[in-house]
From TrEMBL:
CNH domain mapped to chain residues: 15-330
Name this protein carries in UniProt: CNH domain-containing protein
Topology of this chain in the membrane: Peripheral membrane protein
Keyword list, A-Z: Membrane
Length: 853
């Protein structure tokens, strides 16, 4: 394989993390030298000079570059009212030697520096929030030739000029969130070129190409026309590619990455080559050095050609991430060795120690805000910072800490001012600590020798407990929100102690609730309910608390609901009936309160009946569908499994409870089911005929009908003394199907049952008012029941009844008929003679058509 390039490490064991690099050609006669600029995460800018080896000389790692200068305060930003500065990483660099300027992106703002001194020329405040930028440089020269190069997102073009003058034009595009801002350079500052372009997403890569800007997003590429503001969608990224890759080629073309492929397009977004360039892996960055294209891959650098599409060279290089083109070479920043991952050296430790002491000195001088800001940046152990204040740490823990000098005595307004600064500091640290709380953290002591806390969980507990104490001193309205936080980690005993001392009982209830100490909370609520001046006075908070406990705490619900139900039954009912997710729909709580607490609240009994009915109705649908075709369900309450258990419970409850309101419940039970339950409710309402009609003509259960009469019969009570008569009527004169809730489509037609009527009169005739039987006997005589008449007469004669009948407007004594019947054994009921062939029609006073043979 042909070797187009030689490789050699030039910067090793660099104790800084490289974030950006830029390069330009130094003006040295008869020799090619590059100026390499390196921006670091720590905010430093380093300048190296890279000399080209002389002809025949090998490229050596100990000579190719030399550090010319460094600027450790390149990206420092001043902190208001403090004699310190904050360091920001140098995220991107672009050198424009023709204009003697260096453009940088740091702290999400684009700035322009003097290329010779690194001094700040201007800062583009409008670009605040910027994430990347791209520049386009056009230099007009007297010579008739064009030179182009690309540096990161830089497009440098040097077109022909015949005027004999040199003219340089610089355009800048900055991505600020979902917008593109364009500028041009004039009179040592940038001016707005076009109005902002609005995009649908934050750009992740972009490059100029003539008067267009190619923008890469997380999922796809677009082409933006600067002059017309037209936006053209190109194509999506590959499914394996995490970031877009855009490379400017030397002939006004672009190369866009899509998985392992690179697709070539022109400035209008049209493909320029039928087949893409295919790499061995997904490239991280690509540069063009005709006739080669160099791709930085995760494990190596790959060199290829575009036409023909050939693999030229493969250079092993682990963790390469940034590439920059020089005069005749490329510079690649890699994460291998110690180039980007070198830990903080002893010098940095000394600097941090000095800054810690400075922050401590600021605190002693009562400059609390400035002090806390420095402590936050230095990763100082928060417990050591808290120890600067009185009465915030447990005394035994505080005694273990030592400080460089004695601490100031803080009280009154000074103490409150200091605590407010501490609150800001702890809030910031809290957000850092709660991330990956199971991991350990590295912190530093204010004074060397003190033990630092490594456990994030322990630090979180100290921070939250201290915040609680601060809020109680400065603004107690913030205590409850802190305790309600899902990730709140206050120390229970310490927090409990101080909340009781401050009599913050409402906040103490929140602490107990969030820590799962429900019994403590309910005990406190019960005790405070009787205190006239307590914020927890009354039973409302107890009701609310119990409503949200849920099924896992049934024992506590039953235990503490009892006193509320006894003293405030209506509100106690809400513990189990409120429309809340935590209030379970199963009736176990209601059963407990009714059976164990002897609750007599009608609404509560109604609620239990409804819950049981809903449960049975839900289970009934599935049960009926499971029955084989032609099989009828068993008697109510005898169904198998859960449905039988709940239905028996429902029927027993309706029969035994004396406190529900039947007229409200009856409308909740469907007409085409729950017949047993409806009969019980109708009985409670005194609608005995309807109830008995269900037993006799729907359920066909004479035993239940007679049991019903036995339960309700009461001779002295007007509504109940005729229940047996109503049952007799059901047997002799069935009601219309509609009155029983039966539709015609069900095909059920109630029919008389003479045998059941005779049996009923034989067994319970003494419980039937004979003065009201007349109408039934008339019905009997009009029906074809003559064959039963003898049995009917015998029944009444046994009871020595004398029933007066009205037949066709005439009056006759049933007793007289019975006597003659017994003598002759036959009765003529229709003018005809039955019995012996020779019978004499006899008429008695007041009787017609009735004769004794």
């Amino acid at each position: 394989m042909h070797e187009a390039y030689e490789s050699s490490p030039i910067l090793e064991k660099l104790p800084l993390k490289i974030e950006s690099i830029a390069c330009y050609e130094a003006l040295v006669p008869k020799q090619k030298e590059d100026i390499l600029l390196v921006g670091t995460k720590e905010g430093h800018l380093l300048q190296y000079r890279a000399k080209e080896p002389r002809r025949g000389e090998e490229l050596r790692s100990d000579q190719p570059v030399s550090l010319e200068r460094s600027n450790k305060s390149f990206s420092k930003k001043p902190i208001a009212q403090v004699g310190l500065t904050s360091m920001k990483q140098v995220a991107n660099l672009a050198a424009v030697p023709d204009l003697f300027i260096l453009i940088s992106l740091s702290d999400n703002v684009v700035s322009v520096h003097d290329l010779a001194t690194f001094g700040l020329i201007t800062c583009l405040n409008k670009t605040k929030g910027a994430t990347l930028f791209a520049i386009d440089v056009q230099v007009s020269l007297f010579q008739n030739k064009t030179k182009r190069a690309t540096l990161f997102a830089i497009d440098v073009q040097k077109p022909t000029s015949l005027s004999g003058t040199v003219h340089c034009t610089l355009r800048l595009c900055v991505a600020v969130k979902r917008k593109l801002q364009t500028f041009y350079w004039k009179n040592r500052e940038f001016h707005e070129l076009k109005s902002e372009f609005n995009l649908y997403e934050v750009p992740r890569a972009m490059t100029w190409c003539k008067d267009s800007i190619c923008v890469g997003f997380k999922r796809d590429y677009f082409m933006v026309k600067v002059n017309t503001a037209d936006i053209k969608e190109l194509f999506p990224l590959g499914d394996k590619q995490s970031e877009p890759i855009i490379t400017r080629l030397a002939d006004d073309k672009l190369m866009l990455g899509r998985n392992e492929m690179s697709i070539l397009i022109d400035a209008d977004g049209n493909p320029t080559q039928k087949h893409p360039i295919v790499w061995s892996d997904i490239p991280i960055q690509i540069e063009h050095n005709p006739p080669y294209i160099i791709g930085v891959l995760p494990k190596y650098v790959e060199v290829r050609t575009i036409v023909p599409r050939l693999m030229i060279q493969n250079i092993d290089l682990q963790k390469a991430k940034i590439i920059c083109q020089g005069s005749d070479r490329f510079y690649i920043a890699s994460g291998t060795s110690n180039m980007t991952d070198e830990p903080t050296d002893e010098k940095d430790k000394r600097i941090n120690s000095i800054q810690n002491l400075y922050a401590f000195e600021l605190f002693c001088n009562r400059k609390f805000e400035e002090s806390m800001q420095i402590f936050a940046k230095l990763e100082t152990d928060p417990s050591h910072v808290i120890g600067l204040y009185p009465n915030l740490l447990p005394q035994d823990f505080r005694n273990q800490l030592d400080y460089p000098s004695s601490l100031p005595d803080l009280e009154g307004g000074e103490l409150e001012k200091g605590l407010l600064a501490l609150q800001e500091y702890l809030t910031q640290k809290r957000n850092q600590v709660i991330k990956d709380i199971r991991k350990e953290v590295t912190t530093m002591a204010i004074k060397e020798g003190n033990t630092t806390i490594k456990s994030k969980r322990q630090l979180s507990q100290i921070i939250d407990t201290t915040l609680l104490k601060c809020y109680l001193h400065t603004n107690d309205a913030l205590v409850a929100p802190l305790l309600r936080l899902k990730d709140n980690n206050c120390h229970i005993e310490e927090s409990e102690k101080i909340l009781k001392k401050k009599e913050k009982f409402s906040e103490l209830i929140i602490l107990y609730e969030k820590k799962g100490l429900h019994q403590k909370a309910l005990n406190l609520l019960m005790k405070q309910a009787a205190r006239p001046n307590s914020p927890l006075k009354g039973h409302d908070r107890t009701v609310q608390y119990l409503q949200h406990l849920g099924q896992d705490n049934l024992a506590l619900i039953f235990e503490y609901a009892e006193w509320v139900l006894k003293e405030h039954p209506e509100d106690g009912l809400k513990i189990f009936t409120e429309d809340l997710p935590e209030v379970d729909n199963l009736p176990r709580e209601h059963e407990h309160v009714i059976l164990q607490c002897d609750d007599e609240t009608p609404e509560f009994h109604n609620r239990l009946a409804q819950l049981l009915r809903e449960k049975v109705q839900f289970l009934m649908q599935e049960y009926l569908q499971s029955l084989p075709e032609g099989h009828l369900p068993p008697k109510a309450g005898n169904e198998p499994g859960e449905i039988g258990e709940f239905r028996k419970k429902l029927i027993d409850f309706l029969q035994k409870s004396q406190y529900y309101i039947p007229e409200r419940l009856l409308t909740r039970f469907p007409l085409d089911g729950f017949y047993e339950e409806r009969a019980i409710l109708l009985g409670r309402l005194g609608r005995h005929e309807q109830a008995l009609g269900i037993y006799v003509h729907i359920l066909h259960d004479k035993e239940l009908a007679e049991e019903y009469c036995l339960n309700y019969f009461e001779r002295s009570k007007e509504g109940n003394k005729d229940v047996y008569l109503y049952l007799l009527k059901m047997y002799l004169q069935p009601p219309a199907p509609s009155s029983l809730g039966i539709s015609a489509s069900q095909g059920m037609i109630p029919k008389p049952d003479m045998n059941a009527a005779l049996k009923l009169m034989n067994e319970h005739a003494s419980k039937i008012d004979t003065t009201k039987v007349e109408i039934l006997i008339q019905v009997f005589l009009k029906k074809d029941f003559y064959m039963h008449f003898e049995n009917l007469i015998q029944v009444f004669l046994k009871k020595d009844f004398n029933i007066i009948l009205h037949a066709e407007g005439k009056t006759v004594s049933f007793g007289i008929i019975a006597i003659h019947y017994l003598r002759k054994r036959y009765i003529n009921l229709s003018g005809k003679c039955y019995g012996t062939p020779s019978c004499n029609e006899k008429k008695k006073s007041g009787v017609e058509k009735y004769a004794i043979c």
